[in-house]
Protein: Mycofactocin-coupled SDR family oxidoreductase
Organism: Mycolicibacterium arenosum
Amino acid sequence: MGALEGRVAFITGGARGQGRAHALALAAEGANVVIADAPRPMNLTYPLGTEDDLRATAKEVEEFGGLCLPIPMDVRDPDAVSAAVDETVSSLGGLDILVANAGIVSTGPLDEVTDEVWHQLVDTNLTGVFHVLRAVIPVMRRRRFGRIVVTSSMGGRMGIPELGAYNATKWGVIGLAKSVALEVAKEGITVNVICPTTVHTPMVQPVDADDVPDELVQRMMRANPIPQPWIEPEDVSRGLLYLVTDPGVVTGSVLEIGLGGSARIH
Ligand SMILES: NC(=O)c1ccc[n+]([C@@H]2O[C@H](COP(=O)([O-])OP(=O)(O)OC[C@H]3O[C@@H](n4cnc5c(N)ncnc54)[C@H](O)[C@@H]3O)[C@@H](O)[C@H]2O)c1
C-alpha cells in the first residue's frame, strides 16, 4: 500500500514539467490527484501548458490506478480557484495535499521589464499562490489535516542578475508560506517551501530543442558547486514526497534542491 493511499492532492501547474512529475509521484503512492492548469494567454517568450497537456497528463496519472481530475484553471482568477477547490471536494471527497506549483518566468535587466510582465509575474507567482492557499485552508482546517507545499526557487534565496522581477515573487512566496505555517500549525496543517535550482522543463528549454542550455542557464551552471546545467523534475518530486508524507513535524521549512547553491548562502 502506498504512503498516500486515500489522500487527495491538488496540484496547480500540473499539466506538464514539475507539476506533471509531482502528479505521477503522488499517484504512484496511491493519491487521487487534481491537476489544474491551462491559464489564459500571457505575453511570454515560451508557450504555457494547454488543455491537451492537461488531458495527456491525466491519462498517464490514471495508469497508476487512482483517479486524476484535470481542471482548466488560471491561478490569477480567484473565482476559478474557489470553483476548482469546490469541484475537488465534491468529486473526490476532500483535499489533503496542496502543491502550489504554477508559475511563469521572464528574464531581462530590470529597467527593461514592462508593467505588463511585472504584473503577470506577481499575479501568477505570488497572488496566484495566495488565491490557492486562501481557498484550500478552510477545507483542510475542517478535516484538521493538510500538507501544503509551495514552489519557490533558488531565485527566492539569492539575487540573480536579469531575474529581479521573478526573484521578487519567489522571495515573496517564502514569506507568505512561513507566515501561514504559523497560523495553522496547531490545526494539523503543515506549510513548507521547495526551492529548486534550474529544472529541465519547458520553462527553460523548449520540448523540441536540443539539450544545449541557453546563456542564462549556463551562467547559473557556472555558479553552482555541482557542475551540471539543471536537475530533472523527478529530483524535485522526491523532495515534495518527503514533505507531504511527513507525519506533521516539519513546517515553515524551506527545502533547497540547488546543486550545492545552498552552500553559498545564509
Ligand atoms: N524550471 C526551472 O528552472 C524552475 C526553477 C525553480 C523554480 N521553478 C518553478 O517551478 C514551478 C513549475 O515550473 P516548471 O519548471 O514545471 O515550468 P513549466 O512552464 O513547464 O510548468 C509550469 C506550469 O504552470 C502553468 N501555469 C503558469 N501560469 C499559470 C496560471 N496563471 N494559472 C495556472 N497555471 C499556470 C503553466 O501552464 C505550466 O504548465 C514554477 O513555479 C516555476 O517558477 C522552475
Summary: The chain has seven helices and seven strands. Residues 8-264 form a domain with the Rossmann fold fold (CATH 3.40.50.720).
